[in-house]
Amino acid sequence: MGLRIDPSIFPKPGFDEVVARTEETRTIVLGSGLFWCADALYRMLSGIVSVRPGYAGGPKASATFEAVNGGHSDHVFVVELVYEPAKITLGQILQVFFSIAHDPTLRERNGSGPARAQRSVIYYTTGAQRAAALDYISRLKHAGVYDSLILTDVSPLASFFEAEPLHHDYVAKHPRQHHVRMVSLPKLSKLKKLFPQLLKPAHAG
User: Fold this and answer.
1) What ranges do the domains of the chain cover?
2) Which of 52, 88, 91, 151 has its CA 20 to 30 A from that of 25?
3) How confident is the model at residue 5 (pLDDT cuts 50, 70, 90)?
4) Is pLDDT of 172 > 90?
């Protein structure tokens, strides 16, 4: 990743969503490369109610791992997050997204699979999410965090198709798989080191 600063001093967001009730939840969909790693990362965070790997950006007919991974679809590998903004803010989720989950300066090269399926995307479901994401990207650019331009697409969520059961919690089920060992596990270790305050108790320490 072309970071110019240490992730431990990664800029914080300038503003965040307004929370009316402590029990309310929000949904956002993020694409940062093959979804196995992102699925595992966000499952570790306190305030995340559910994580579902899946596909976005194309029709239902081509929303399969075989089609997407084979480069025969316009879909992006994504994860759908349902979160409680009173417990974890969108800004904190985006800090993890930009500092650990992937390299946002590589729009179509965040993994070993097909380029388009690996591109960096934020699919928002509310206007506040869009505003917060765009503001944070602007702050990262102003701070010169990366050595290249941030290329993350920020778009409204049109559709999301859940991935096959095999891909849910894949890292925990397949710790010896090559991609998991080489890509996912190092990122999980980095998350524990850099953002221990965001972790669920089961993953702390």
Assistant:
1) 25-195
2) 151
3) confident
4) yes
List 162's β-bridge partners, or say none: 54
Higher pLDDT: 203 or 157? It is 157
The predicted structure's pLDDT at residue 12: 83
Per-residue pLDDT for 70 more than 60?
yes
For domain 25-195, the question of CATH label 3.30.1060.10 is answered with: yes
Question: Cα(first)–Cα(last) distance of the chain, in Å?
Answer: 26
Residue identified by tokens 């699979």 is 113
DSSP string covering 48-103: EEEEEEEEESS-GGG-SHHHHHTT-SS-EEEEEEEE-TTTS-HHHHHHHIIIII--
The residue assigned the tokens 């290329």 is 151
CA 52, 54, 56, 60 dihedral sign is negative
Least confident of 110-114, 168-172, 197-201: 110-114
Tokens of 80: 């759908």
CA triplet 184, 188, 194: central angle to 5 degrees?
140
Identify the pLDDT of residue 26. Answer: 95
- Beta-strand pair 120-124/26-32: antiparallel
Residue found by looking up tokens 């991935």 in the block: 163
The radius of gyration of the chain from alpha carbons, rounded to an integer in Å, stands at 16
SS percent in the chain: helix, strand, coil, step 5? 40, 20, 40
To the nearest 10 degrees (0 to 180), the angle between helices 185-194 and 35-43 is 30
